[in-house]
Amino acid sequence: MATTTKQAYTPLNEQTVIELSQELDLFSDYSSLEVNEIGDGNLNLVFRLVEPATKKSVIIKQALPYAKVVGESWPLTLDRARIESDSLKKFAEFSPEHVPEILYTNNELAVTVMEDLSSHVILRKGLIDGVTYPSLAQHIGTFIAKNLFYTSDFYLHPFEKKRLVQQFTNPELCKITEDLVFTDPFYDIETNDYPAELQDAVSELWNDATLRNKATRLKLKFLTHAEALLHGDLHSGSIFVTEESTKIIDSEFAYYGPQGFDIAHFFANIAMNHIAQRAHIKDKEKRAEYQLYLSGLIRDTWNTFTDTYKGLWRNEGVELATKLPGFEDEVLESIFTDMVGFAGCEVIRRTIGLAHVADLDSIADFDEQILLKKKALKLGRDWVKNKQRIKNIEEFITSIRSV
């Protein structure tokens, strides 16, 4: 593949992205190249380029210097494109089958060229539609376990661990998480977004001093515990799936943080889908069957995660702590407790904060949507306030099914 000459940053369009692909010698024939801007996220331009004769295709992604959801009044660092490409390459060292192949990066242009995953679907859409994915739990559990262990002090030489912490220092995007997940939803702040019909529930949440205290403690852990390299935004919109394949994308929020964070976001989004299925699947028997699948997805993901993590700990642990009897159980218990609390913050944020989830927002019956959002808020509050009372994955699942 060719390389480009050094260029000043300019947002790409459908013409200039073709010119870039020519510079990189991505295709053989550019005369009929098909180009579509397919990005539906908040932070980036995403172009899909297809050569009709050969069916060869690639994705060219470019970070924007602002959040599309807000506009140019909310500037963002372009360094997040480097963070994303570097983190996906790092994840590929452990789980190459679960991330897109990175073909080219240009930090000045904030551009990443990667494998096209159009044969997959976004997990969130599949879950809303009631689709089951038999390999998903094993893939996600293994992916998270390997990422956490292989980038932690339990495996790495301390010098290499600290070098990676520097490489993945990501203050601008971490600040977004600090505000939107751990701060704004718990206060009367203008970034919050919810209908007036939720005001009573929201006011009750804002007046809950214990909840604010617990959320603040979770924020402090997010700020201060550089335990392992995280994806940083592992919700169901950041995962592409087929029945046999799982690919994790959009890791521009990657940084070194607490080990319970990524799996918490995954479980929180599965839980919100579980709640929303009361509206999406009208047939009671089919709904109950699908909600059992979602419960099993959480259970099997956690069990795969813990089994994989324990295996790595016992067979590849370098730090002396990995030789201490019973210490691995203490670490996993800490990850679990943190997971419950972080999941609660994510559910609250996705219900009344900035950037909701389609699982709940797409419910056509407005009264039903409000009812289910109140249930989501109740679940999130319970997880944040009572994370230490939930002792195992079965109790965690029960809390979702009983809300």
UniProtKB/TrEMBL annotation:
Reactions it catalyzes: 5-(methylsulfanyl)-D-ribose + ATP = 5-(methylsulfanyl)-alpha-D-ribose 1-phosphate + ADP + H(+)
Positions that bind substrate: D233, R349
Matching SUPFAM superfamilies: Protein kinase-like (PK-like) (SSF56112)
Binding site residues for ATP: N44, K61, E115, D116, L117
Pathway connected to this protein: Amino-acid biosynthesis; L-methionine biosynthesis via salvage pathway; S-methyl-5-thio-alpha-D-ribose 1-phosphate from S-methyl-5'-thioadenosine (hydrolase route): step 2/2
A Pfam family that the UniProt record links to this protein: APH
Keyword Amino-acid biosynthesis: yes
Gene Ontology biological process terms from the UniProt entry: L-methionine salvage from methylthioadenosine
GO molecular function: ATP binding; S-methyl-5-thioribose kinase activity
Keyword annotations of the record: Amino-acid biosynthesis, ATP-binding, Kinase, Methionine biosynthesis, Nucleotide-binding, Transferase
InterPro entries in UniProt: Aminoglycoside_PTrfase (IPR002575), Kinase-like_dom_sf (IPR011009), Methylthioribose_kinase (IPR009212)
Domain Aminoglycoside phosphotransferase: 35-270
Enzyme Commission numbers on file: 2.7.1.100
Family membership: Belongs to the methylthioribose kinase family.
The protein's role, per its UniProt record: Catalyzes the phosphorylation of methylthioribose into methylthioribose-1-phosphate.
Record text on subunit structure and interactions: Homodimer.
Protein name: Methylthioribose kinase
Organism of this sequence: Fictibacillus solisalsi
